[in-house]
Every structure is written in structure tokens, then in C-alpha cells.
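hi support,

uploading two proteins for the ticket. first:
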Amino acid sequence: MGRNLLLVVIALLITGCGSRVTGSASSSSPTSTFTPVSQPFRLFTHCGILTTYIAGRTFYLAELYPARVSFEGNPGNPEVSGSMTMLSPHVARFSDSSGKQIVFVDQLPGTLNTPYPYTVRLLSGGNALMDEPFAGRRWHTTETLPGVKGPPYGNGMDTFTEVPGTLTIVDAEDAVFRSNAGGVVHFTALGPIGCD
């Protein structure tokens, strides 16, 4: 009987040596899954929405053109209550009680060296360009467009001249605006700042 047992063990070893194990039952590589997590959230909207702070880090508005995000807050309250859902480790979605949603990402949106259609605005009473929100940043310049002036100074609160062209993000902090008429202005991204 001892010899029979030895023959069975040898047969099993020989059979096992030449076979290939397949299938997920014996696979030891872990599969990563992410479960969306929602929590109550107050979104600061007073100066427009470009960024928010979630899960200990900055998230950026996924929409390149912030003006396309129609979100109405209460002028007397700079925050909107709702919920923030982490859809993945890199994407979050804010939802308010009326069902409006805003998507945020943890990387600056936009592709480098790609010209995006864009319109800059000149303030009334001169040739100074306004700071412009785009691709998760607020862009600033001290340069001017040659030969272009804003409208005459009126009340100074709501009058400006629009100049169409393209905005190309060169790197995380620099962009170049080219007007349709050929003028070129360099913009620099402003750091996180408060507003009045």
C-alpha cells in the first residue's frame, strides 16, 4: 500500500508540473474598484467657480469656459449647499437641491499648446484688459492690444469691449491670447485669491 501511495503522489506531481494554471481563481493580482462617496458640501460661489477644496486637495472646474456653468447662488450668501460625490479618486461632482451639477477634476483642465476660441474684454475708459477665467485659473496681463480701446468711461461697472481670438495655454502659469486681428498678449495665471 505504501508503494501505491508513492505512485499516486509521483503521478500527481508529474501531472502538475506540465500544466498551466489559468483563470481568476488562482490569480493573485488585486482588482481596484472605486465606490462613489457622497457627503454634504457647501460650494463657495461668490466670485465665480474655478476651484474647490475636496478630500484635502484642490479640484478644478472641469469645464474650460466657466461662463458655460449656469449656477445661481444667493447674492446674500456666497455658498451653495448641496452634496459632493467623489466619482473616482480624480473626479468629483457637486449637486445642489434643484439637481444642477458641476464636475471638478484634480488636474488643471485644458491641453497645452492648443488654441481655444476665446474672447477678452477691455475695461471702459482705456486699454486695460480684464482678468479672464479659463481652464481652472484666473488669467491676468499688464499688456495691451495695440490700437484697441475700451468704450468711453460711463459708470465703469458693466461696460467693456470684447475682442475675439484664441487663448493658448503654454504651461500651468502662462497663456497667449491672439486676437483675430493679429494682436498678441501674454497672460499669467493668478494664484488663489479672495474677492470683494
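and the second one:
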Amino acid sequence: MSKGKKRRSERALAIQVLYGLSFIPVDSPDDLRRAFLRSPHHAGRTEEAALSGYAFTLVEGVWGKSAQLDEIIARHAINWRLDRLGRIELTLLRMAIFELLFCRDVPPKAVINEALELSRAFSGKEAIRFINGILDAAAKAAETGELAAGMPGGDSEIHQTRENRIHEQ
């Protein structure tokens, strides 16, 4: 399986786990790991392999930074409150913005394209343009450094986290 197809399936798994967590939240990193490992998509994989994969990187990152990601989404979702967004759309946006900011090895256009593909698979048609608009605005803000300035730890935290994730894989 090519790296792109593997990443797509890892993203799909991450979306499903994160969506499930929107109904049954967890309170600790240990609970997060257990919830992730309960996913039926881990058949034939060791616990170590599952937790070292890209899907868990996304799940752990989105879970740990959801408040910051929600602030960014709210900033770019003009005339929309987060509580009006569907859970799957909010989950897709969180994950894509996490990738935009913290997964430096993934080009922004690829992040947006993958989020739109996931939206086609898991969401309604009407959500695609909305998701695309928010992600495009967030990608431009990240490119100019506007988002990094608004994140705790600023740009250096984002770059450090991205570099750590790349080297861990």
C-alpha cells in the first residue's frame, strides 16, 4: 500500500475514533489509548503498532489540542457557532487543522484534499464547501503565521511538535 493510501485509511480510522469520542469523551491519555485500541480496525496489529501509527498521532493530537483547534475553527467559521456544526464536520475540521499546524510533512493542499474526501465519505454534500472554506482560510492564516501567533507557545511549539511527529514515524 502506498504512503498516500495508508495515510488515507489512517485518517479514516482517526475520524471514526474521534467521532466516537465526541459521544463518549475520555478524561486521560490512558483512557484515550484504551478507546483507540477498542476500535475494530486494529485486527492483526499489535498494540505497539496501533499506537505508533498515524491514526493514533492524529487522535492523540486532536484530543490534546481540541480547545485550541476549536478557537481556530470559530475564528474562521464566520457567522457560525461551533455548537451549530455537526459532530462529524467539527471532527473533520479539528483533524485537518491539527494536520495543517502540526504535521509538517503533509502539504496543506493534501490536508485539505484529504479532509474533503473524508467529508464526501462521512458527511453530507452541503458540508464540503463549508469545510473547504474554513480549511482554506486556516491554511492561508497558517502560511502567513497568523495562526501560530495565536497558539499557546507560538510558532516554535508548532514547529517542534511537527518535527517530533515526523521523527517518531
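thanks. also noticed: The two ends are 16 Å apart (CA to CA).
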